[in-house]
């Protein structure tokens, strides 16, 4: 599978990436309302927000539930681990055992998120074989996210995971091993020019096409310790340069490996 074809799987994250930056609000609901999350999900999916059993509740419970339903239309709901089983959420489906699961009523989706000690957030929509990793303090995380996505070939069973930011892209494949390119559009690169990568003040690296094998593992180790990556690459008629902040790279790299092992 070519790097460009593999990259296309990361594009499925774009439609949901804006959800990652919304403020997530934990609803203060009692255990009875927690039991009704599944019913609420069904009502929302059908556009029916009525409560047929409201007459059976006392006034206080009915008021609490009505308030929670209204809030749920606006705010994500934190799902407690005790409710996973009844909602069909498997712990094995999570990337991280200590991550949180939220329900997004407007989108009728469950998301997994984990915030690391350096304020880097991992964000993933259930049912999507991809994730976003970004700095929660960044002013424009939509442009600054690391994107991870995985796929499996339906014929050969080859599995591949991609990690990308800006034009820079890593690929881990069960067939080809590790590959790295400073450009996602490798077919446009000028083969008569070198493509360059430099991490902080280390010696620049160069290749005619893309790096592979042990070269990639060496680059990964540099990026784990580095702050900034600089690239320069040539297409047939243009020269491009990028300056890429490396914050969150280690989290993104580790996420890729976990997802690769689970996929």
Concise overview:
This protein is α+β, with helices and mostly antiparallel strands and 263 residues long. Helices cover 27% and strands 29% of the residues.
Characterization of the model:
With 263 residues, this protein is of the alpha+beta class. The protein has one domain. Helix content is 27%, strand content 29%. The protein contains eight helices and 14 strands. A hairpin with a 4-residue loop joins strand 4 and strand 5. The N terminus is likely disordered.
Q: What is the topology?
A:
Blueprint (H helix, E strand, L loop, with lengths): L2 H5 L6 H4 L13 H5 L1 H10 L12 H16 L2 E3 L20 E5 L4 E7 L4 E6 L4 E6 L5 H4 L1 E7 L6 E7 L2 E6 L3 E5 L13 E5 L5 E3 L3 E2 L1 H12 L2 E7 L4 E7 L3 H14 L1
Antiparallel strand pairs: 1-2, 2-3, 3-4, 4-5, 5-6, 6-7, 7-8, 8-9, 9-12, 10-11, 10-13, 13-14
List keywords for this structure.
alpha+beta, four-stranded antiparallel beta sheet, 263 residues, disordered N terminus, single chain, ten-stranded antiparallel beta sheet
